[in-house]
Design goal:
heterodimer; A: about 675 residues; mainly alpha; two-stranded antiparallel ribbon; 4 strands; B: about 100 residues; about 75% helix
Amino acid sequence: MKETTFGWLVLLCPLVGTIVISLGWRWLPGRTAGWIGTLAIALAFAFSVAMLIKILGTAEEHRRFTSTLWNYASTLGVDATLSIYVDPLSVFMSLVVSGVSTMIHLYSVTYMASDRGIRRYFAYLNYFVFSMLLLVLAGNFFLLIVGWAFVGAASYLLISFWFRRTTATRAGIKAFVINVFGDVGLVLGTFFIFRHTGTVDFVKTFNAVPHVFAHNSPDLVAGCLLLLIGAFAKSAQVPLHTWLPDAMEGPTPVSALIHAATMVTAGVYLIARMHGLFEQAPTAADVGAIGGCLTLVMAATIAIVQTDIKRVIAYSTMSQIGYMIMGVCVGAYSAGLFHLMTHAFFKALLFMSAGSIIGAMAGAQSLDRMGGFRRALPFTFVCFLIGGLALCGLPPFSGWLSKDDILAFTDHRGGGFLLLGIAGYAGAGLTGIYTFRMIFRAFFGDPVPEARSLEEGHLAHAEVPRNPMNGEEEDTDVGFPGPGHYIAEREWPMKIAMSVLALGAITAGVLQIPGVDRSIQRFLSPTFADSRLVRSDPSTASDWVGLLIGAVIAIVGIAIAYRVWVGRPGTAPALQRRLATLHNFLAHKWYFDELIDVLVVRPALWIGRFADSVLERIVITGTITDGTVGIVRAGSAAVRRLQTGFLRYYAAALVVGMSGIALYFLISSS
Amino acid sequence: MAIGWYLVVSALIFCIGAGGVLARRNPLVVLLCLELMLNAANLALVAFARVHGREDGQIFALIVMVIAACEVTVGLGLIVAIYRRRLPIDVDELSELNG
C-alpha cells in the first residue's frame, strides 16, 4: 500500500469510531463505547506507524506525498480538493496526536465510567481526534480550515460536556467565540496568500511563495499576521488565551486531550507548516516569537498563584506552548516540534495524575484542600513527580532536552533574540517554582481527611456533589459528572495509560541529544529542507551550555519551591501579605478577562443593545413595519367611506359611471 | 325600416327602469325595474338584428332572457329570505354591508 493510503486510513478510523458510537448511543453499553473509541484511535496510531515505516523506506528527498480523493471545485482559479499531504511533519504530528490520544481514551474508559453521558463523550472524543488528524494531514488550506474549525467545534462540545453546569457552558461559549475569531484570521490570511499565489494547495503555495512575494512584502506580512491570529487563538497565546484556563470545566481527560494531543498544538503545527511563508515575512515571525515569549512568562507567573490544580496545569500548558511558538517562529522547528512531543507526554501524564487526585478528593480541585497524598496515592505521586520533573526540565527527563533545545537555538540567533532566550530561562525558573508548589502542596505536608481515609482503604465520596468552581450543588444525572470517583491505584486502564506516558516523559528525550543523535531533526529535515534558518544550527557545544544553564535554573526553581512550601511552611502566606498588590494582579490573571470585558464584551453588548433599542425598535419596527401598516390603514379608511351599504347609492354610481363612459366614447368618436 | 322609433321606445323603457331602480325602496319593485332595463336592451338588440338582417342579435336577446330569469330567481329568493327573517323589506334599511 502507498503512504497516502495509510494517511486516509488514519483519518478513517476515528471517523468510523465517531459514527458507530453516535449511532449506537442508545444500545451500546458505556464501556463498550469506550473500548470502540479506544480501538479506533489505536488503529489510527497503528496506521500512523505504518505510514512512518513506509516513509522511512523512501529516499529522503522524495518524502512528500499528496493524494487527492476528489475535487470540490476547480473553477475560477480555486483548486479546492479533498487531498492529504503526507510528509515527515504530518507523519510526526499524526503519530503524536493518535498515540497520546489512545492513552487518553484508555484512561477515559474508567475515568468516565459512571457518567451517564459516556457514549456521547466518546463520540465527541473520537470526533475531536478526527478533526485534529484532518488538520495535520490536510493537503491544502481549504481542508486545513475545515479541520481547524472542526477542532474548535469539538472543543466546544467537550468543554461544555457537563452542560448542566452554567460555568461549563459559559466556558464552552468563550472557547468557541475566541476560536472562531482565530478561524476568521486563518481564513483571511489564506485569502491574502491565495490572492497572490492563485492556489490553495500546500505544495504549490510553498513552491510559489519565494517567487511571488518579495522579502517582507506587506501583503505576505499581513497574511502571516492573520495566520498568527488563528494560531494564537487555537494555541491560547496572549491576548487570545483566556479561554484555555476556563476550558478546565471539561472532564479531566478532555483537558489532557486539549492540552497534550489536539487543539493547542495546532498553532505550533500551523507555523511549522507555513515556515516558508514566515521566513519570507520575518516581521510576522518576530511578532509571533515575541507573543510566544510574552505568553510563556505571563502564564508562568499566573500559575504560581492559582489554587485550582487543573488551572495551574493549564497555565503551565500556555507557558509551554509559548516556548513552542517562540521556537517555531525563530526557526527552531525541530526543537519546537520535539518539545511539542515531549510536552504531549508529560502534560497528558500530569492531567491524568491530577484526575486521579481529583478522584481521591471526590471531585474537589482546590490545592488549598489537598495535602499529604504521598502515601495514599503512591502511583499517582510517582507519575506526577515524573511529569513535573519533565515539565521543569530537569535532566535527564525529556522536557530538559526539548525545552533547552529551543532556548539554545533562540540564543544562538543573537541580537534581540537573546532577550527572548533570557525571558525563556526566566520562565523555566518560574516553571520549577509553580510545578513543585503544586507537588508540595498536594502530596507533602499533613494528610487531609480524604488522604487519611484512603490510606485506610476508603475512597472519599462526596455526600452532595458540588461544582468545584462555584460550589453549587449538583445532580448526578446526565449533563453532570457521574457519582463514581476513580483513582489510578485501583483501575488498571488508568494505570496503563499513565505508565506508558510516564515512560515517554522519561525516555522521549533520547530521540534528540545534541552531539549524540538528532533523530527528530534528521527525520523532519525533508520538510524543512527549504528553510534558510535551519542551516544556522547552533554547535553541539553551545547546545550543551544551554542545556546546563537550563538544568541549573530548573534546580534553582525547585529549590525555591522547596524552601517556600516545605522548608518554611509559613513563607507563602507571609509573601502573599507582603506583596498583596502583586498577588492580586497575578490572581486576577493580569486582569486580562477584565480588559477583554471592557474592550470587547461590553462594547459588543452596548452595540447589541443599541441595535435592539434603536435599530430594531425604532428603525425597523417603528418606521418600516409600522409605517407600511399605517399607510395601508389610512388609505383603507379613506376608501371605506365610499362603502355606505345603500343599494340605491351603488346603483346611482353605476348609472352615472356608465353614462360617463358612454358620453366619453360618444364625444371622442364624433 | 326605420330603426329610430324602436330605439326611442327602448331608451324610454330603459330610463323608466333605471329611474325605478334609483327611486324605489321596495326590493320587489327594484327587481321589476331591473327587468324593464334588461328588456329595453333586448328590444334594442332585436331591432338591430332586424335592421342588419342577421340572427346574432336575437340569439343574444335569448341569452339575456336566460340571465334575467336566473337573476330574478336569486333576487326573489333573497326577498323571501328577508321576509322570513322578519327584516324590513326596504333596501335603504338593509345597509349593514357598509365599510
